[in-house]
């Protein structure tokens, strides 16, 4: 009995289960994306062990507060459904969160306000095939009310944003204007703008916009937070007035409010559509030849002459945008579910975070018009790589390992990849290292990739030369990298372990004891690897590139060996992939963090080390990328893996702290 009790206590200590009272689909993430469209439009609801939409303020990705408040008034009773405002001398109830659902582009909350359920939908479009739409730094905030008792009710909704959306320093002075017409827009900005300047990762340039189409029942107001909110709480409508006493963000907290009187409702109301955005121009300063500077604008400027036009178009496009988002969400869900439901949930949480850290830009010609042939995205991919190549081509990049020509780069790989020199890699938290086998893999795949490019460019001799060099490197590499038993890869010293691009760790505690690898438990707790203590082997996730590109330089036997390592660590191979994926999902849902999905965490207990909201979570789409890769080799058949007793041997000490993990 006592033993059982201890067991239970241990389990509950390992699982900090969120005491949430709402249904969460697919799960309650560490932080819920609300408006996540660009590095400077990035609003989240931090969760921890479970935080309702009205239990805290939304936060910027760094964790600083973004004032965003919402009330719904039902038959004269006011309920707070968004943010954590407090207004003296008023009576307000808290709406009760009934559910949270997230998909790749949407986070939806149902908040019960007495006899009415308010559906609060945050839609951050992801439009990879439309550069104009993808580059619009706006998100939708959509409200719809429905009686939950079959009766009719009088309903008014209210929301506001504070000036915290435009600065990292609340003591700075802001100014604002409200424009009316077919759309009502509140615009707020710093009075002293700093071009390309940041304070605490917040841009000190540009403006925030809070807008809605002019419809019957719409009222607006700007002014001190408590004053404007009390106005709605007391009367259910705003005064259509503007405060013109421009002041600091935190000086009597100016807010920018919109209210909609939905009238007496007996069924679900049509959506109240609001857009929130942050726009700056120019967006990026880019170094071109001879050290000259070039201003680059967000791509949408090539199609719109003013922000107002862009906002009108964005708001007018809502129903189509929703329909595209639903198609996109369901495509991602279907494709990722083919791997597993847990995988689909990790991907859904990662999509906005990955896209929301990028921006698509365009330059201007000498005549001042936009040069739409010159598109660059500031992060990865063709448009993403272009600025890197071009910059290096200017000759201003000081390091020899990145040349302007791919062929020159290949010469570097030929001379350095088999026995990589002491250098940092994406695992640079471990410091710089020599002989990183995982880097060797990447380099060898790179040489083969250049052989394919040379072939496409009609350079047959070069192609064949590079192809044979990569083949010969694979043979030599296998000698360096295979253990004396021939059963696994001895991946140099100091190689953190990863499964492809997913955040996966296994218990490599070296005695082959896998008793704690219980399905459903968080595998991220496992592993003993740190700067002070490294095993002599690991997962060579860079082989993903060989599979993705279909270069096929590594023989199947290496992949099989690879899988054997994973397999041996967890005894049963049948569900190995899903077990790893479930571990990541458990980490993402363990309630121990409140930050946008972090990719660096303690494997001993799943606590995050930082690295919040980074676009590297795009790597979670790795398995989807292989699905759509026609020439990729087949996935190793884990069902067919020979399940043997663990074969791994290593240092006897396992007293080192958990491994820290980040990056791709
Ligand atoms: C607000 O400040 C900006 C930046 O200094 C300035 O361009 C704009 O004219 C000001 N607007 C108002 C209404 O004062
Ligand atoms: C970039 O834009 C800023 C602000 O408009 C301007 O002051 C600056 O001269 C521009 N730089 C170039 C290189 O065009
Ligand atoms: C790296 O590998 C080479 C070739 O095997 C070896 O000579 C060198 O000592 C190794 N360096 C380190 C730091 O292990
Ligand atoms: C193959 O490429 C290497 C590296 O560029 C070069 O040194 C070698 O001469 C080439 N061999 C042939 C046959 O072209
Ligand atoms: C765990 O490993 C130890 C040492 O190798 C061994 O004695 C023990 O039987 C293992 N336990 C299980 C459950 O496999
Ligand atoms: C990993 O294995 C080691 C050695 O068997 C054990 O001490 C440790 O608790 C395990 N950790 C987890 C989280 O499974
Ligand atoms: C994988 O291996 C198992 C066991 O050998 C086999 O039954 C199954 O058909 C294989 N699957 C594929 C896709 O080859
Ligand atoms: C698994 O491997 C062992 C040892 O190499 C071998 O004896 C056995 O036949 C293999 N089993 C299967 C099903 O391949």
Structure explained in plain terms:
- Residues 105-335 form the Glutaminase A N-terminal domain.
- Keywords: Signal.
- The protein is α+β, with helices and mostly antiparallel strands.
- It has a domain at 23-334: Beta-galactosidase, Chain A, domain 5.
- It is 27% helix and 25% strand.
- The chain contains 14 helices and 28 strands.
- The strands form six sheets. Strands 1-8-9-10-11-21-17-14-13-19 form a ten-stranded mixed β-sheet. A six-stranded mixed β-sheet has the order 7-6-5-12-20-18.
- A hairpin with a 5-residue loop joins strand 22 and strand 23 (293-298).
- Helix 5 (318-337) packs across helix 6.
- Residues 411, 414, 465 line the site of one 2-acetamido-2-deoxy-beta-D-glucopyranose.
- One 2-acetamido-2-deoxy-beta-D-glucopyranose is lined by residues 642, 644.
* Ions, cofactors and other bound molecules: 2-acetamido-2-deoxy-beta-D-glucopyranose
Order of strands across the main sheet: 1-8-9-10-11-21-17-14-13-19
Structural category is alpha+beta
Q: Give the percentage of residues in beta strands.
A: 15-25%
Q: Would you give the CATH topology of the domain at 23-334?
A: Beta-galactosidase, Chain A, domain 5
C-alpha Rg, in Å? Answer: 27 Å
Q: Major beta sheet, specifics?
A: 10 strands, mixed
CATH A-level architecture of the domain at 23-334: Distorted Sandwich
Helix fraction, binned, reads: 25-40%
Number of strands: 28
Mean pLDDT: 79
């Amino acid at each position: 009995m006592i033993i059982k009790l201890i067991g239970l206590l241990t389990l509950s200590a390992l699982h900090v289960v969120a005491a949430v009272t709402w249904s969460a689909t697919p799960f309650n993430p560490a932080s819920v994306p609300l408006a996540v469209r660009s590095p400077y439009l990035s609003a989240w609801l931090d969760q921890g062990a479970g935080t309702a939409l009205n239990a805290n303020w939304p936060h910027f990705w760094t964790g600083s507060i973004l004032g965003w408040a919402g009330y719904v008034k039902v038959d004269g009773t006011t309920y707070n459904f968004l943010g954590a405002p407090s207004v003296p001398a008023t009576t307000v109830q808290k709406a009760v969160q009934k559910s949270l659902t997230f998909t790749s582009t949407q986070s939806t909350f149902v908040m019960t306000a007495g006899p009415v359920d308010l559906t609060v939908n945050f839609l951050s479009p992801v439009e990879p095939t439309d550069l104009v739409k993808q580059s619009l730094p706006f998100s939708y905030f959509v409200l719809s009310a429905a009686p939950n008792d079959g009766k009719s009710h009088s309903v008014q909704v209210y929301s506001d944003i504070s000036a915290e959306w435009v600065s990292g320093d609340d003591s700075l002075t802001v100014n604002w204007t409200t424009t009316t017409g077919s759309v009502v827009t509140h615009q707020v900005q710093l009075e002293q703008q700093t071009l390309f300047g940041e304070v605490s990762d917040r841009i000190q340039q540009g403006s925030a916009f809070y807008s809605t189409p002019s419809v019957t029942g719409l009222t607006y107001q700007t002014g001190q937070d408590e004053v404007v909110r009390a106005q709605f709480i007391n009367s259910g409508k705003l005064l259509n007035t503007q405060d013109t006493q421009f002041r600091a963000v935190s000086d009597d907290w100016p807010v920018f409010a919109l209210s909609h009187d939905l009238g007496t409702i007996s069924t679900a109301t049509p959506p109240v559509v609001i857009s929130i955005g942050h726009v700056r121009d120019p967006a990026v300063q880019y170094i071109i030849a001879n050290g000259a500077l070039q201003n680059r604008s967000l791509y949408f400027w090539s199609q719109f002459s003013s922000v107002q036009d862009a906002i009108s178009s964005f708001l007018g496009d809502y129903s189509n945008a929703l329909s595209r988002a639903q198609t996109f969400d369901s495509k991602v869900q279907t494709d990722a579910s083919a791997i597993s439901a847990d995988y689909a949930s990790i991907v859904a949480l990662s999509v906005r975070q990955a896209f929301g850290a990028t921006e698509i830009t365009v330059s201007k010609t000498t005549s001042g018009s936009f040069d739409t042939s010159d598109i660059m995205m500031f992060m990865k991919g063709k448009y993403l790589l272009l600025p890197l190549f071009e910059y290096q081509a200017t000759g201003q990049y000081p390091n020899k390992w990145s040349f302007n020509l791919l062929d020159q780069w290949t010469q570097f790989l030929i001379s350095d990849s088999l026995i990589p020199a002491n250098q940092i890699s994406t695992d640079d938290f471990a410091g710089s290292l020599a002989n990183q086998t995982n880097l060797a893999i990447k380099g060898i795949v790179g040489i083969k990739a250049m052989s394919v490019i040379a072939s496409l460019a009609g350079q047959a001799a070069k192609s064949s030369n590079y192809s044979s060099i990569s083949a010969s490197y694979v043979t030599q590499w296998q000698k360096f990298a295979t253990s004396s038993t021939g059963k696994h890869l001895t991946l140099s010293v100091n190689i953190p372990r990863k499964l492809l691009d997913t955040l996966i760790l296994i218990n490599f505690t070296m005695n082959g004891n896998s008793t704690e690898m219980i399905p459903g438990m968080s595998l991220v707790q496992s592993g003993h690897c740190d700067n002070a203590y490294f095993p002599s082997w690991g997962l060579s996730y860079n082989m993903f590139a060989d599979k993705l590109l279909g270069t096929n330089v590594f023989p199947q036997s290496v992949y099989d060996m690879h899988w054997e390592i994973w397999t041996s660590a967890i005894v049963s191979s049948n569900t190995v992939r899903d077990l790893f994926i479930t571990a990541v999902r458990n980490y993402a849902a363990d309630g121990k963090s409140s930050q946008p999905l972090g990719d660096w965490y303690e494997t001993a207990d799943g606590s995050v080390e930082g690295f919040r909201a980074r676009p590297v979570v795009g790597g979670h789409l790795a398995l989807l990328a292989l699905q759509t890769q026609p020439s990729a080799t087949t996935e190793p058949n884990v069902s067919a893996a020979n399940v043997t007793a663990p074969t791994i041997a290593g240092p006897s000490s396992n007293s080192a702290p958990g491994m820290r993990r980040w990056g791709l």
